[in-house]
Amino acid sequence: MNIHAATPARPIPPLHASGLTLDPSARRQGWLRPSDPDDAFETLSSRFRQDGYLYLKGFLHRDEVLEQRRRALSHLDLAGLLQPGTDPVLGVARQGQIDSGAVNRRLMEYVRSAAYESFCMTPRLWQFMDRLVGGLSYLHKRKLLRHTLPQQQFSTPAHYDLVYLRGGTDRLITVWIPVGDCPVEMGGLLYLENSHRLGVQMEAEFAAKSAQLSAEERVSAYNKHMTEGGWISKNLPEMAEKFDSRWLVADYEAGDIVLHSPFMIHAATLNESPDGLIRLSTDIRYQNVVDEIDARWNNHWTLDDML
Ligand SMILES: O=C(O)CCC(=O)C(=O)O
What we know:
This protein has helices at about 40-50, 60-75, 100-110, 115-120, 125-135, 195-210, 215-220, 235-240, and strands at about 15, 20, 30, 35, 55, 135-140, 145-150, 170-180, 190, 245-250, 255-260, 265-270, 280-290. By secondary structure, the chain is an alpha+beta fold. Strands 4, 5, 6, 7, 8, 11 and 13 form a seven-stranded mixed sheet that branches. A four-stranded mixed sheet has the order 3-10-9-12, with no helix packed on it. Strand 1 (about 15) and strand 2 form a beta hairpin. The termini are far apart. Bound molecules: 2-oxoglutaric acid (AKG). 2-oxoglutaric acid binds near residues 156, 161, 189, 266 and 268.
């Protein structure tokens, strides 16, 4: 794979999150560095440790990812998610009112399906994770599948994952998988460059402040020292400025995956698909089975599980 050809030549389009426009200057925005999954494992693992993320182009079979998109969206469409008469694999959102309660009930069914579970445990993925965690890898049962509608006004604010997973090891690896093509306009994940070092510092500060809290409160993302939702901030332009960093984005394609450290700060932007397409993605977490597992993640995801 010619990985240099995988870095888009086009300018990054205007991006929006929480009512704000991201600073388009090259000092504050850039493309994620793509990696070739066929590169030597040592090169990939050292890049992951160094950058806090690893963006693997074409890691999964495109056809299998698109098949997963078709299955998942067809199931959600039992509750009327899609524009009637369109091919489910496209993911054209229904124009007009969508019954989000009914769609979410279908979503909670789908994340329990063998079709989805086996996708998250694609052999190439768990075998790669075994090598990266240095032993037998364990996939957390709580796995999130997100369908972001083009008309939706909420996008994931800036955070690092350990905030929600403090009850076990910090030797975690998140895998974010776009289930379908996700050009930057569709609001895929973006990373604050080099922020995994910042996340380590922030977590040490939170731990020091929380030392007097009960064990249950200490691991909570919602304890009194955290902001609402456990987010670091909803103001993405201000964060890039404050930490003198850049938000790194990508034109994700079906088959790509990104791995990130539990300390790496990331967020999403609004889905501004000009074609009204749904951004479907899953985020799942692996660790070494010998490390402590956060028991709160031992159940399937439910929308009110407060994690
Ligand atoms: O997909 C999103 O909007 C957020 C995903 C996320 O925060 C993660 O993968 O850790």
